[in-house]
Amino acid sequence: MTVAQTVELEGHIIDSGMMQRCFGVVMDLGGNFDVEVFEVGKHKDAESYCRMTVQADDEERLREILHELHQNGAHLSDPPNATLKPAPADRVVPDGFYSTTNHPTQVRYDGEWLPVENMEMDCAVVVEPDGPRAYTKVLNAIEEGDLVVSDEAGVRVDPPERPRGSGGPFGFMQGGVSAERPSESLIREIAEAVAETKAEGGSVLAVAGPAVVHSGAGDALARLVGEGYVDMLSAGNGFAVHDLESGRYGTSLGMDVETRENPRKGHKHHIYTISEVVRAGGIREAVEEGLVDEGVMYECIQNDVPYVLAGSIRDDGPLPDTITDAVEAQNAIREQAHEADLVLMLATLLHSVAVGNCLPSTTRVVCVDINPATVTQLLDRGSAQAIGMVTDIGTFLPALAETILDE
Predict the structure, then answer these.
(1) Quick check: 205 and 348 in contact, CB under 8 A?
(2) For residues 65 and 32, is the Cβ–Cβ distance under 8 A?
């Protein structure tokens, strides 16, 4: 005896590969499907529609198939209201709670679809009847009595689609990894994406690692901040320390940024820098006292560009501005991520993955690193909207800044 359920696919299901993926899911998990209706869009902007019955040998297998179909954008034909269960205690979610993807999501409440606010992956969805409204919450923010969406029934996920011929300033962002020197054409396209984001009133978030400074690309990022092309900065203690060291002593981790030589006592410069900034009371105070008069952090202070410096157990110091509480730092990063329209991830594995985890799949992402693991881990963890370049940040970033600022 078999069990069955009817699901629907709609949108650009052919060009985006959604239909093929859903067919593959059913077969790979040992089920069968019967296509009842298939309506194909007649031109490149027209959407298509498919309704099919999915069959499995038992309820457990059917639930497994429906779960995977749901992740790929399939919807139940006759969805019920979402199941809401009260959280039994602070930071405790009900059994079987719905764990989010980073795709645009809706939940059905009182016969209506509610868009879920602040989408990011690996969260719970809380519904407030007054309004009503639905929004994500990380597990450590759950409060006793929160009405948490449980199970996938009554939840609708809409992965981003790309109709045939879609282009525009972000048409190059089709996901994947490019292991090559930064070509002039690709840099121009990224520059146009940054400029377009700013022209539309959007926000650009730069996620930077210490290699930006070590490679000599710090000046390029500072120019972008100073000229208003970077609206927010997310980094670690190490990036800020070496940027300030470069502005103070002309070195990064003791090496002269321009000559690549190691001056006498240069290995102590980053410790000296930390001590001087601590003595001043923080980065802003150090800039105001004239201890530093150039660099990325200097431009952030001068142009009121907000930054989040997240600490780690590896940090020297750390700087007074560095957030050493991991949960507090994560929440600060999350606030930045929710405001960003375009994210430039520059030579940092841990921060790229951390910020990527907080981004909805509709946020445009460019990830650049000489280490291919940075790019592939970002994509593998769910940030499929990202374009990745495996290349030297010291070559890429100055070329990008020159292209943006000279146009």
Answers:
(1) no
(2) no
Non-local (6+) Cβ contacts of 328 within 8 A are: none
Give me 336's structure tokens. Answer: 């930045």
Percent of residues in the chain assigned helix, strand, coil, to nearest 5: 35, 25, 40
Give the three-state DSSP class for 365: strand
Cα angle value 292/295/299 (rounded, 5°): 90
User: Could you read off the pLDDT of 238-273 as tens digits, one per residue?
Assistant: 999 999 999 999 888 767 677 666 776 677 888 999
Between helices 184-199 and 393-406, what is the axis angle to 10°?
A: 50
Distance CA 49, CA 36 (A): 11
CB half-sphere exposure, 155, CA atoms < 13 A:
30
Beta strand 204-208 with 124-128 is unpaired
Peptide bond into 132 cis (omega under 30): yes
pLDDT digits (tens, 9 = 90+) for 139-155: 999 999 999 999 888 99
| 354, amino acid identity | A
